[in-house]
Amino acid sequence: MVRSRPIVSTGNPGFDTVLKGGLPSNRLYLLEGTPGSGKTTLGLQFLLTGVAAGEPVLYITLSETAEELESVAHSHGWSLDGINLFEFASTAEVLGESYEQSILHPWEAELGNTIRLIQERVDALQPKRLVFDSLSEMRLLAQDPLRYRRQVLALKQYFAGRDITVLLVDDLTGAGGEQDNHLHSLCHGVVTLERLTLDFGPARRRLQIQKLRGVDFTAGFHDFTIRKGGLEVYPRLIAAGRHVEFTGEAVKSGIPELDNLLFGGPMRGTSTLVSGPAGAGKTTLALVYVAAACRRGERCTIYEFDERVTTLISRADSMGLNFTGFLENGLLVIQQIDPAEISPGEFAWRVRSEVEDRGCTMIVVDSLNGYLAAMPQEQQLILQMHELLSYLSQHGVVTFLINPQHGLLGSMATNLDISYVADSVILIRFFEAQGRLRKAISILKHRAGAHEDAIRELRIDSQGVRVGEPLSDFRGVLTGTPEYFGADRPLMEER
């Protein structure tokens, strides 16, 4: 019977989640990526986790000096105390003091002597974790690709007889920037880090596990950032298998006329798309539902891409929604999101944390235009949004998506056609009547059940949100240029 190997933590909670626990111990792994992708930082996190567990660890560097590594560690608030550092900063360590250092460079040294010194240091220290940085220098020392591969194979065989978990770092510069398939076949697992430069904003980083023998890891790309304290990995959100039992009841807004439009309100575990032009009241409508949920003691979260948080709070308080009080007692969280600074994977991870760690039951995304700005490729946005909404649905979370449209009257368009993903669609339109600009509200879609098909007037003023009688004496309201044909009945006026 084959026993499963013990698992060692990488020191990164998000990465361990992708690995579904960590790396099988006593194996050889390849950590590859272009310069600046975060390989050294992840390698140091891996070793520092071993130091915290009382394990002897070794960092072998052919590319960076001890001073450079100290600088990296200092930037994250780390100390390298406990990490045994073996650097080839001069040829004296490889060839002895008899060679002239100013003439003979490190990459001209014999590869065999380099490997011998490494083995001697490993035999003396007997580390549990080892990082070898980097293979590009070994390629330069070998000169010949066949000789290089033989030496890597010899290293693998050498480490195989010892209780060591090894990370081989490769910056891909020595291979013309391309992956070495031969090296992939030698290693037990391969992790690739990528650094992507967009037209605007900071660089985006992501990782994927190319292979990991005997481990049911989470495949695909996973976004990550490098911040003070190391890498923050955001595992790709997978909705399947995450169902949580909940009661599928209607969620009320506290305004009977508004609730009647959906015959009770949106159902738990559904998403509602609120669409309309700028200034029509889309966000305000969602805030009404948030305030009602907070009054019931539920936890809510608003992700604000467009409006300033202080402006949002002031506006809500002026309508008597008491957002200041809900923020103080922890029932409401408002996160200001900068689409240029956040990746879709990080946003999904934030949502997941709010739901699983904080117990959030209602989420507002304001707006989809801001979320679209964080995703250069629209098709990926649709897929990610669909997965996110599926996840929230399985947890019984009520989601409101604010979808701005272009134009004020007549035909209007949107940057993103996501109406088929949402369970309910609320449409707000401007129309002109009696010399005034007015608003109309209607329900276009409600998967959870029946809904009212009437077009009603919507008014938002100092009294809050009001829904009037059906606009039965008009036709063409949704075109923005209605035609009046009924009796002389006044519309809603300000109280």
TrEMBL record:
Gene3D superfamilies: P-loop containing nucleotide triphosphate hydrolases
EC numbers for this chain: 2.7.11.1
Highest taxon of the lineage: Bacteria
InterPro entries found in the cross-reference section: AAA+_ATPase (IPR003593), Circadian_clock_KaiC-rel (IPR051347), KaiC (IPR030665), KaiC-like_dom (IPR014774), KaiC_dom (IPR010624), P-loop_NTPase (IPR027417)
Matching Pfam families: ATPase (PF06745)
Main enzyme class: transferase
Keywords of the record: Hydrolase, Kinase, Phosphoprotein, Repeat, Transferase
Entry GO MF terms: ATP binding; hydrolase activity; protein serine/threonine kinase activity
The protein's name in its UniProt record: non-specific serine/threonine protein kinase
Organism: Halopseudomonas xinjiangensis
